[in-house]
């Protein structure tokens, strides 16, 4: 890896799957890992969560690492992603494989898509998306997380809506520590530092699977990998359709 001021400042080398495996082991040494539906009065605990914005393929890679170490994570899937479509056969198959590894299912909820501004509007939209996700995957949804939280979502702080645990409730904001890799870097606290320090008695860790790759990359490179991978997949699908139907791929 070539070292630059940004690679050091933003800890590019943290975001490999090899290092992810090490961090999972460290977390399990420090905390009891709970799901969102388990009681929260068990002393020190950790909630390990993924908001899957871009890549179900990357989600499966992390799910396999977690399974190997005995970690149970919750995967929050997005119905309005520009990068994957849960109605596609391959996407559904991958999501089911993640859940078959023993992980839990959450809804990554795009409140801006629905122009949600109040609790009744949130309940209506959550009810619909919860039903769609459960129907697609034949698996219960346990919790939801807001996609790209803003001032509007910050007002919606009840513990549950539509019988789903709200990961941005008052409880999680005031009683539980938080560490996130949003946009491919540690925006507030570095996960390794948080885990080694261990001073958070209750901790919620949020990662986005697409930012964890085999090789050391910049955040931009990791996103570009998802974009190019999606484009290649669509192109290969189209070429296969032409081949299977005996049609030509006409160009200039």
What does this structure look like?
This protein has 252 residues and is α/β, with parallel strands linked by helices. It has a single domain, classed as Glycoside hydrolase/deacetylase (TIM Barrel, Alpha-Beta Barrel). It is built from 10 helices and 9 strands. Strands 1, 2, 3, 4, 5, 6, 7, 8 and 9 form a 9-stranded mixed beta sheet that branches. Strand 8, helix 9 and strand 9 form a beta-alpha-beta unit. The N and C termini lie far apart (41 Å).
Considering the protein shown, what is the CATH homologous superfamily?
Glycoside hydrolase/deacetylase
Average the pLDDT over all residues and give the rounded result. Answer: 95
> Biggest sheet: strands, sense, closure?
9 strands, mixed
Order of helices and strands: HHEEHEHEHHEHEEHEHEH
CATH architecture: Alpha-Beta Barrel
Helix content: 40-55%
Q: Give the number of helices.
A: 10
Number of domains: 1
Show unreliable segments: none
| Structural class by helix and strand composition | alpha/beta
| Rg over CA atoms | 19 Å
Number of E-type strands: 9
**In percent terms, what proportion of residues is strand?**
15-25%
CATH fold label: TIM Barrel
CATH class equals Alpha Beta
Keywords:
44% helix; alpha/beta; 252 residues; 9 strands
In summary, what is this structure?
By secondary structure, the protein is an alpha/beta fold.
List the helices and strands and how they pair.
Layout: H1 5-9, H2 17-30, E1 32-34, E2 45-52, H3 56-69, E3 74-78, H4 89-100, E4 104-109, H5 111-114, H6 119-137, E5 143-146, H7 151-154, E6 160-161, E7 164-166, H8 170-175, E8 177-180, H9 191-197, E9 202-207, H10 219-244
Parallel strand pairs: 1-2, 2-3, 2-9, 3-4, 4-5, 5-7, 8-9
Antiparallel strand pairs: 6-7
Helix pairs in contact: 2-3, 2-9, 3-4
